[in-house]
Amino acid sequence: MSTAIEDKVSTVLENRTWRYATKKFDTSKKVSEEDLNTLLEATRLSASSYGLQPYHVLVISNPEVKEQLKAASWGQSQLTDASHIIVFANFADFGDELVDDYITNVSETRGIPAENLNGYADFMKSKLVNLPTETKNNWTARQAYIAFGNAMQAAAELKIDTCPMEGFEAEQYNEILGLTDKNLKAAVVLAVGYRSEEDDTQHYAKVRRSEEELFTLI
């Protein structure tokens, strides 16, 4: 293995070892606009099934809103101490418009006549549009999690600390952020900022399953 490749491998693993679920953020440190924009662009570039991105991402820095979200998150301090709170909200339901909007985007981005994409559009609709509403909700939530995972790893590359959070009352989030009226549901939350020196968990050894337990090579 060449030195350049070894360095890349080392960086990839170092970033993931460095990252941990930050429990206490330094309230005096804020993520710069430049780094935040890079993080959001990395999130925008995330993969999704068919490329449809059936979710919306809310970035919250307003202290009053963060206080409300903290109350809906069992009082966890990350909600107010972190620089920004990123809420990944999946589409609660959808119809033909999800595919139609995507096809329009493809047509405009790639300079392809929309009618040339009708076959692909019909194929996607046949697989998705007639699914039960609950199945659609579960599928869109999984898509949101893909973007969430990409955001968390991009943050590690930028040396921005994060705390992935599922410990919140989704219905309260939906109400506070006005999501229900927009056909959205809060799926998962990512607090972003910088670790406090007082956060003892940063010094804990990372605990993961062994390669033998986790992987099967066939």
Automatic annotation (TrEMBL):
UniProt protein name: Nitroreductase
InterPro entries referenced in this protein's UniProt entry, alphabetically: NfsB-like, Nitroreductase, Nitroreductase-like
Family: Belongs to the nitroreductase family.
PANTHER family on file: NAD(P)H NITROREDUCTASE YDGI-RELATED (PTHR43673), NADH DEHYDROGENASE_NAD(P)H NITROREDUCTASE XCC3605-RELATED (PTHR43673:SF10)
Keyword DNA damage: no
Alphabetically ordered keywords of this record: NADP, Oxidoreductase
Nitroreductase domain sequence ranges: 18-194
Gene Ontology terms, MF aspect: oxidoreductase activity
Superkingdom: Bacteria
